[in-house]
Amino acid sequence: MTSDMAFECLLVSRDPSVVCTVNKLLENLSISTNICLTASKALDQLSEGSTDLIVIDMEEDSVDLLDSIQKSGRWQKPTVVAVSAGYRPVPGAHVVMRKPVTEVSAARSLRTAYSRMLYDYRRHSRYALITSVKATGVKNQPVDVTITDIGDGGVGLSSREEFAIGDVLSFHLLLPGTERAIYIEARVQWARNYGALGCEYVRIPPVDLNILHDWLKRKAQVKKPLVEI
């Protein structure tokens, strides 16, 4: 993701027709594009930046690139589009763009990839919150916790109290800029010795869930595409 909140794509191809067609469509999606001619050079670029999307024109060495992406230690892996002349699935690719590449077929493939990329970004994003709340913990005992971050998949907490994996906490949280506090029940997934906790949601009432989702969408604004998705 670039500083202006645009997705970043690494386009790996030495075919001028593929590069020209795909690059134009990526611009329409407001995606910043880096072009790489070979899979070996693409590996070097992947280790340096935060790539959200990879479009790979399949050649002999492309399989090694796909394998390296799958085995990488990145907690959020990029969306992968394979440009292939065959009709079989491409292992490691989320979307397959068939050759010969046309503007219509490429646009269809990239729209699918964009939707997946946007979903992954919103699902994994975490937003800092340093907010103290009174939670109800084990045996319904009140406990002071600090909300450190929140996202679509869970919430980060810190506390001087000790918690075990599987403990459930409930609390009300007023998100910045909202008018009413939302109710959250969350289960501890991991705990650190210094009091940090990672929790997954157990239950959020439907109305409160809508408030949370709307708030997260406002926080997760990315550069708007020039075309309708």
Note poorly predicted spans.
none
Which overall shape is indicated by the principal axes computed on the Cα atoms? elongated
Largest sheet: 6 strands, antiparallel
Number of helices, where a helix is a run of at least 4 consecutive DSSP H or I residues: 5
Determine the CATH superfamily of the largest domain.
Answer: Response regulator
CA-to-CA gap between the ends? 19 Å
Which fold name corresponds to the CATH topology of the largest domain? Rossmann fold
Number of DSSP-assigned strands: 11
Secondary-structure element sequence? EHEHEHEEHEEEEEEH
The level-1 CATH class of the largest domain: Alpha Beta
| Binned strand content | 25-35%
Derived structural class = alpha/beta
Whole-angstrom Rg = 21 Å
Structural summary, described in words:
- The protein folds into 2 domains: 8-124, Rossmann fold, CATH 3.40.50; 126-219, predicted glycosyltransferase like domains (Thrombin, subunit H), CATH 2.40.10.220.
- The model has no long low-confidence stretch (mean pLDDT 90).
- The two termini are 19 Å apart.
- Helix 1 crosses helix 4 and helix 2 runs parallel beside helix 3 (62-71).
- With 229 residues, it is of the alpha/beta class.
- 26% of the residues are buried.
- The protein is built from 5 helices and 11 strands.
- The strands form 2 sheets. A 6-stranded antiparallel beta sheet has the order 6-7-8-11-10-9. A 5-stranded parallel beta sheet has the order 2-1-3-4-5, with helices on both faces.
